[in-house]
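During the second year of the project, the team shifted from modelling isolated chains to modelling whole assemblies. The rationale, set out in the original proposal, was that interfaces cannot be judged from single-chain predictions alone. As a representative example for this report, we include one of the complexes processed in the last quarter. Its constituent sequences, exactly as entered into the pipeline, are reproduced here:
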Amino acid sequence: MTGTSAELSVSLWRGAQDGRYETYAVPQRESQTVLDVVTFVQRHIDPTLSYRFACRVGVCGSCAMTVNGRPRWTCRTHVSKVADGGRIEIGPLENLPVIKDLTTDMQVFFEKWQEAKGVFAPSQTRQDPIAQIRPDTPVRAAADAAIECINCGVCYAACDTVRWNSDYLGPAALTRAWTLVNDERDAGNTARLQAVAASGGCHACHSHQSCQELCPQTLNPTASIAGLKRRTAAAYLKGEIKPEIKP
Amino acid sequence: MNVRLYIWQRSTAAVMAPLVLVHIAVIFYATRQGMTAADILARTHGSVVWAAFYGLFVAAASIHASIGIRNILSEWSPLTERRAGQFAIGFGLLLAALGLRAVAAVVLS
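Output from the structure prediction step:
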């Protein structure tokens, strides 16, 4: 464990969008996670603290927060890795409306998944035999590359383009779209490519790669978005899709 | 930005890349040879090749820059995307007019 103080100085965002940071003293422990710190405050100092978590083991994607200025999954982020001289500042995810304290309203994040047609469109029925998908084909490898997204919202909070352009679908939704574009069983690609080729879609990405740098699953949304740019450009040149500008 | 603007911006960038290299090479050549404005104009006057070269350059730069301006305005200013597009079209036309006027001055004068 790094740091010499036995106590952490923890600043937590309190209130809604117009809230402020309040500082708490939390005992420092071995192998302590940021989520442990937040939980300590809620259980021992102020039970009115609101935050979101479920699995505590990096599967559910519920507990992402801004830790010392960067979005992180708090259940798998060790205090020793992020504490700056025994201080930690923990706030709600950026680019999302704050409901209260560390809890954001993720509705727009998931609505954009729908907007990007990030939903599997079946090409067969339950009466058809199960599709045989070889895992070693390039197209399946491309689908598998980003399939482990846990919808935590870290990439969305890290994205400068989301900050500047509220219509931008964001790295997570576009990465999901790219996964489905490469899914041989899916039948929704024309509508999907049309959706992500519109204004606010994949071409709005500036390739800053903050999503790739901070994704807790070490996915590369920038690469997925680049794939969508290529695929939509080809589809447009073939006349399969048309550009749409949002009103 | 949508896919149509993306393709226009990337394709005009691809067109400009070799043109910029030739343009810079010409500048180096002209300055190292100690050519005067009159020397240069004597060579460019009536030249279909230079008219086509710089005419294409102006067209590509006008399209490329105006799409970039549109993106900057729609992301960084309070203008709506439609308004940013209108402003960008005006900016592109201005660039094209100024550029083609300069080409005409060099080739036709």
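The CA atoms of residues 10 and 182 of chain A lie 44 Å apart. The first strand of chain A starts at residue 7 and ends at 14.
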